[in-house]
Write a structure and sequence with these properties.
With 290 residues, this protein is an alpha+beta fold. The chain contains nine helices and eleven strands.
């Protein structure tokens, strides 16, 4: 039997196409979603829990439609994409009287992981108001920390999954593409670090950064079930020198090319940034190359 295409490793024959055409003709007024459900019922496509594999069937039907083998009905309704149209975090009111003096005068500093807690809205709002990049929703694995001096927040840290392709880091670690793909989950990317604007305490930034990275792997494992062995970040040198990172023993790995991950022109279209990294364990290379 002639194979018209292969979908997810499964050959799709001309007879299969005929079945789908008959299904569409038999139910001319139904939506693509309902047609995919009917196809699953006809072919007994079910998940291990008994639910229909209608998303797989829909993907197959869409592939056949694009290849010209069938003609699907027009899309009736497109649900809003909450990732494409995301409301910006609202303003957060906090006491803004200056916090100054010496580091030891702040007293005990408390780190709170606020992802998926009632404090996350506050974290997002403070970043949106006071960080020059604003708030952006991280992708992949992510943690958010608020640092308190007593009852007042003084700093915020946002962490997420590391960039997939980063030449200076990959050269530093000695990664091949295969090893990078296997071990990328053991890296964490510091997407935002903010000392709140009313806080002016010498050495606070590097002190908090050092404490943050010492606890990061343990906190990551609590949430995601695996540690992280290396941290990375970018520093926009048109705005900052990265002094607190260097004071906290982060290493200069190189510079970005200023093109971004979706570049098609091979020309710089954004500021060139320093790439900094920090090993979180002594044997980080052995762990990340295994």
């Amino acid at each position: 039997m002639e194979t018209v295409l292969t979908f997810r490793g499964r050959p799709v024959t001309a007879a299969d196409v005929g079945v789908i055409r008959e299904l569409i003709a038999a139910y001319p007024g139904e939506s693509r979603r309902r047609l995919s459900q009917r196809l699953c019922e006809a072919w007994e496509w079910r998940q291990a829990n008994g639910a229909l594999r209608d998303m797989v069937a829909r993907g197959l039907m869409l592939a056949l439609d694009r290849a010209g083998h069938i003609e699907l009905p027009a899309v009736k309704w497109r649900p809003p994409n909450p990732l494409a149209v995301r409301a910006r975090p609202g303003p957060i009111e906090f006491e803004c009287t200056p916090v100054s003096g010496k580091l030891r005068e702040l007293g005990a500093l408390q780190f709170r992981q606020v992802r998926r807690t009632d404090e996350e809205r506050c974290f997002n709002g403070l970043l949106e108001q006071h960080h020059y990049l604003g708030y952006s929703q991280p992708v992949g694995e992510q943690l958010k920390f608020m640092v308190y001096a007593g009852s007042r927040p003084v700093a915020l840290f946002a962490w997420s999954s590391a960039a997939r392709h980063l030449s200076p880091r990959d050269r530093y670690l000695g990664w091949s593409p295969a090893v990078r793909q296997r071990n990328l989950r053991f890296l964490a990317y510091n997407t935002r670090y903010l000392i709140l604007p009313w806080v002016n305490v010498p050495y606070l930034a590097s002190h908090l950064l050092s404490r943050m990275t010492r606890m990061l792997s343990c906190e990551w494992e609590k949430v995601y079930g695996h540690p992280v062995h290396f941290a990375e970040t970018f520093v926009d040198t048109t705005r900052h020198r990265g002094t607190c990172y260097r004071a906290a023993n982060w290493v200069m790995l190189g510079r970005t090319q200023g093109r971004g991950k979706d570049d098609l022109t091979h020309r710089p279209n954004r500021t060139i940034k320093d790439v900094l990294g920090l090993p979180l364990v002594a044997d980080f290379r052995e762990r990340l190359l295994s």
